[in-house]
Write the structure tokens for this entry.
Amino acid sequence: MTRVISVRLPPDWEGRVTPGKARAWVSAWLASPVVLVAEPPATGGYKVNLRLSAAQIAELRKHSKRDTSAAIRGILALHLAQKPPVQHKRGFLWLVGGVITGSFLLLLTFTGVGPAKGRQP
């Protein structure tokens, strides 16, 4: 027998979590449970409906030791936390620019471009 579970999620998860993804992530977690985050994210205005069997719901409660909704939010939080952070490569570009500029200035200095050396004023 299956049941439809409605889970309220934080609004910033809208577009990142679909019912299909949520069901796949919950099924994967049930296959090999791991420790969930200490505090599941707070509920919000975004709602996802999942169809789970009674056996899946019982396993979810048993392994997570939480109510169904909090357990599902905790599982989804695990997957959303695995997104790689946006990396800005600005620091690397500044470094490359500095090295190129420094090399150019050294080249100019050693090739004699600029004020003539040894010239009397």
The chain is about 50% helix and 15% strand. Residues 2-81 form one domain. The helical segments are 19-31, 54-64, 68-81, 90-110. Residues 41 and 77 are 7 Å apart (CA to CA).
